[in-house]
Each structure stands twice: as structure tokens, then as C-alpha cells.
Amino acid sequence: MRQRSVAPGDLVAGLLATGLGLAVVLYVRRFPELPGGQPGPALFPGIVGGLLIVFGVVLAVRAIAARPRPVEPAADSDESSTHPDLAGEGPIHRPPRRRRRYVPVAKAAAVLAAVGVYLLAAGVLGFIPTMAALLWLLMLALGARPLPALGAAVLATLLIYYLFGMVLLVPLPLGPLG
């Protein structure tokens, strides 16, 4: 059975995310409520805070559960007696298998760069073409296949546009195509 490898900082990151989410949820409780049960300004920050708590706890629990444990030799194997270095020793400690290098800093930088490009380009090109292109490029940078990534980027952009632009009436940049 393969065990999922966990980055050493996952426990710390999970606890920090949980703490930040808890702070956000407690802070937005002070925001004013709108009359008639309408969602107020605390709705979206409260949702984000709640998600931070949930995913932070999940990350921390997975990090604790995936800690390396000593590997015991099988009861029927006589490995310790046939190997001179292991004779009379305790449990065998095997290092985890090496996996491909994962570069989270570069991927996080790509996401931050996409936010910056969106801020610069959305007013000129409009929300739909800018968001679709940036989502597609981000998916490619994160390892998705080009054609499925293009479809997902277009669908996500249209869903976001409908939800925020049409339902919630958030003004989104129209661009030259209006």
C-alpha cells in the first residue's frame, strides 16, 4: 500500500490556515446585518473563513496521519538474520521513495502573476476574454492537458460571469466588445 507523501510544512500550514479562518469568522461577526434577511457584507468573508478552517483542519489531519512510521519486517521473513548489518537490530527504517521535484513556489508565483495581469488587462480586454485566457494559461502551467483546460477555462469563466455579473450584479469590466 502506497502512502501519500506530505510536505514537512503541511501541519504548520494547516494550523495557520485554521487559525486565520477562525480569526476571519470571528472578525466578520462584527459586520452590520442588512434588514430583511438580505446577505450582508460578512457573507463572502465568512464563507472564505469557514473554508480556511475546514481545509486547514483537513491538511493538518492528513499531515499527522501521513507521518513516517518505522517499517517492521514481516513475521515470516528472516531478513534480520540473513543481513549482517541488521542482525539483532530493531525495526528497519527505510527512507521514502524520491518523487519528481515539485516546485510550489513557481506555481504560487504563476497564480500571483495571473492576478496582476488580470488587474492590468481586464479593463482593456474585458472580463470574459481576460479571465478565460488567464485560467487556461494557469491550468497549463499547473500541468493540465491543453484541450480539456481550454474547455474548463471557458466554462468556469462563463459561470463566474453569470454568477457575479448577472445574479449578484457585481460590475465586471466589459472591454471593447461591450
Task: List the keywords.
178 residues; 2 domains; 6 helices; 0% strand
Description:
- With 178 residues, the protein is mainly α.
- The protein has two domains: 1-71 and 80-99, no CATH class; 103-178, no CATH class.
- Helices cover 59% and strands 0% of the residues.
- It has helices at residues 10-28, 43-65, 79-82, 104-125, 127-141, 146-167.
- The longest helix is centred in the N-terminal third of the chain and has 23 residues, at 43-65.
- The mean pLDDT is 81.
Layout of helices and strands:
Blueprint: H1 10-28, H2 43-65, H3 79-82, H4 104-125, H5 127-141, H6 146-167
Helix pairs in contact: 1-2, 4-5, 5-6
Mean pLDDT: 81
What is the total tally of β strands? 0
Largest sheet: none
Number of helices, where a helix is a run of at least 4 consecutive DSSP H or I residues: 6
Taken together, the total number of domains comes to 2
**Structural class, please?**
mainly alpha
Beta content comes to under 5%
Summarize it.
With 178 residues, the chain is mainly α. The chain has two domains: 1-71 and 80-99, no CATH class; 103-178, no CATH class. It is built from six helices and no strands.
